[in-house]
Specification:
Arc Repressor Mutant, subunit A; nine-stranded mixed sheet; 15 strands; 22% strand
Length: 343
């Protein structure tokens, strides 16, 4: 970036020296016009839509498959393959710091991703570490040694962050302490253009805001460039993503035998599931049903049922029978499945 420098007279320079001697050096300032004509490289995507260069906190409840998801990402990047069944990744070097599983379990998980004697791809650009110091005890120095030793350092995975977290500062509150602990890791990732994906747990009971669900204070999510929350509800598992530089999204995902698959936007997938539930309720009765009866049969809210019924009528999935009662459309001939009481 070219910064405009204003020439100063000797008298002004003398005055500036006096000010610096008294108050210390000033801010390093950038003129807005210079800033607006500067060019910056695009955000470096590691797993487009989810993981970018910088520090990402990836949190979820126990036994939902966080490690499986991280391995899926690691293998896709190291091989230049596909993550979650559909996301193309640029090939690069990956360091997986697994502090909870030994080599035997790591091997078994990799083999599970390639069952039925499928040939293993070349994963020489994915390396594993099972021991590491605390973050304030040489951890970043070891990251730097790895970074300069490989051709294209793209992704570091830390499984889990708690294992490298040093003790907090007793003179700070929990938020301040957590933020100051993770800030050096975030700064390292940003400075070198490497994605650092740190696995973490969520609180029991969750929270209204997914970022509030992370275990501990909000210092971690505030420090992270991106936060991803893996959750599971009545409609299945979802990945919620929010970051400083990426679009907020919630994706419905499927986890099966170690493999992850993107199903689509969570709201749309959930809506489709609810439509199927309404159709099932209508098909499992011998008379047309009203919104309240459908809500009782499906466990859905009455307002949601009424909204979806209107959409389903427009789409031709169901038809009205009399006043405020519904039946599924007969796909064979387009007629109603039953006759209304008025016929």
């Amino acid at each position: 970036m070219n910064i405009r420098v204003t020439e100063l007279s000797n008298e002004e320079l003398d005055n500036l020296t006096v000010v610096q001697d008294r108050f210390g050096p000033g801010f390093k300032r950038t003129n807005t016009n210079d800033l607006m004509v500067a060019t910056f490289p695009p955000l470096k995507a590691i797993m487009p839509g989810y993981v970018y260069a910088g520090f990402t906190a990836f949190a979820g409840r126990m036994k939902l498959g966080k490690t499986w998801w991280a391995i899926d990402c690691a293998v896709a990047v190291a091989t230049g393959g596909v993550a979650m069944g559909s996301i193309d990744c640029t090939q690069g070097d990956v360091l997986y710091i697994d502090l909870e599983n030994g080599p035997r379990r790591i091997q078994s998980r990799i083999r599970a991703l390639f069952p039925h004697d499928r040939e293993l791809p070349d994963m020489s650009r994915l390396e594993w570490v099972t021991e590491a110091p605390l973050l304030n005890d040489g951890f970043l120095g070891r990251l730097d040694r790895w970074r300069v030793s490989v051709a294209d350092p793209r992704l570091v995975i830390i499984d889990v962050l708690q294992r490298i977290k040093p003790s907090g500062n007793k003179n700070q509150n929990a938020y301040e302490s957590d933020y100051s602990i993770w800030a050096p890791l975030q700064e390292w990732a940003t400075r070198h253009g490497v994605a650092v994906l740190g696995l973490h747990h969520t609180k029991k009971g969750g929270a209204d805001d997914p970022l509030e669900a992370l275990s501990g204070s909000n210092g971690l999510s505030a420090c992270a460039d991106t936060t991803i929350v893996l959750d599971q509800g009545s409609s299945g598992r979802t990945l919620y993503v929010r970051g400083r530089d990426i679009e907020e999204r919630e994706t419905a995902v499927l986890f099966n035998a170690g493999s992850w698959t993107v199903l689509g936007d969570a709201a749309e997938v959930n809506k489709s599931d609810q439509r199927r539930a309404i159709l099932d309720a209508l098909r499992n009765t011998t008379t047309p049903l009203g919104p309240k009866e459908i809500a009782a049969a499906t466990g859905m809210k009455d307002g949601n049922v009424r909204f979806l019924l209107g959409q389903m009528v427009t789409a031709g999935e169901i038809q009205k029978q009399g006043y405020g009662r519904y039946t599924p459309t007969n796909t064979a001939n387009g007629s109603n499945t039953w006759c209304s009481d008025e016929d």
